[in-house]
């Protein structure tokens, strides 16, 4: 039996909202409109949601059977309260948000107005382009809802090609922190390594790093800390000391707008690696002392 088709209003045509709207439209749902403020969002809507009118929030609420709220985390609560305060939301309307941080409690004002509230968070990084659409296939999506509405959330996930994973309301902050820590801080780490290699004159540091990073990522996804290699895992204190000297020099000579934070990041992550390394006590103490030592003051 084919699930009923819905008239969906997209509030927030950013990287996530526009892509998910396009995915649901491809499954036969009608898009009643999209709310887009910035020029980038308007261009994204034109590209991914051609022919969909750009409307204000009250108009979308009035004409939609389902609202897809794809706005920044800190805007979600005020948006839900604002919609509820207008009295426009009809009973029985579906309201879905895409925040990883929140479950459905943030939508409580709309639930009290009679809406069925769902949280659906795809565990992937979005580019806001059509290349995201095939990447939705098989993507885990964390869903949170009252038990009676979980099948609705799961059905929407299946329509977008994803795999539904139920996340309890109280577990959402840790769930989101784990994903943000992995993805966002990986970007920082790779950016720092790219900058260091570029300083050496390597023209395409991303390509240079790719084989190493792809192998390390695959191994760590399979084996966790068992994939750890390198000087800390081997107990090579001399190499760690040389790294710290080189990175301190890198930071000290950073360009004016370039963050000089590679050494601090290395120390923090190396200490975390040390906690996972099975080293003899003497090696462990020596390397910890190196990593915890205050870096030399910068020369004026």
What does this 3D model show about the protein?
By secondary structure, the chain is α/β, with parallel strands linked by helices. It is 52% helix and 12% strand. It is built from 13 helices and seven strands. It has helices at 15-26, 39-48, 57-63, 73-86, 108-112, 132-135, 150-159, 172-199, 205-223, 231-234, 237-252, 262-276, 281-292; strands at residues 7-11, 30-35, 66-69, 94-97, 116-122, 140-145, 163-166. It has a seven-stranded mixed beta sheet with strand order 2-1-3-4-5-6-7, with helices on both faces. Strand 1, helix 1 (15-26) and strand 2 form a beta-alpha-beta unit. Helix 1 (15-26) packs parallel to helix 2 (39-48), helix 11 (237-252) packs antiparallel against helix 12 and helix 12 (262-276) packs antiparallel against helix 13. It starts with 6 loop residues before the first strand and ends in an 8-residue tail after the last helix. The mean pLDDT is 94.
What topology emerges from the helices and strands here?
Elements: E1 7-11, H1 15-26, E2 30-35, H2 39-48, H3 57-63, E3 66-69, H4 73-86, E4 94-97, H5 108-112, E5 116-122, H6 132-135, E6 140-145, H7 150-159, E7 163-166, H8 172-199, H9 205-223, H10 231-234, H11 237-252, H12 262-276, H13 281-292
Parallel strand pairs: 1-2, 1-3, 3-4, 4-5, 6-7
Antiparallel strand pairs: 5-6
Helix pairs in contact: 1-2, 11-12, 11-13, 12-13
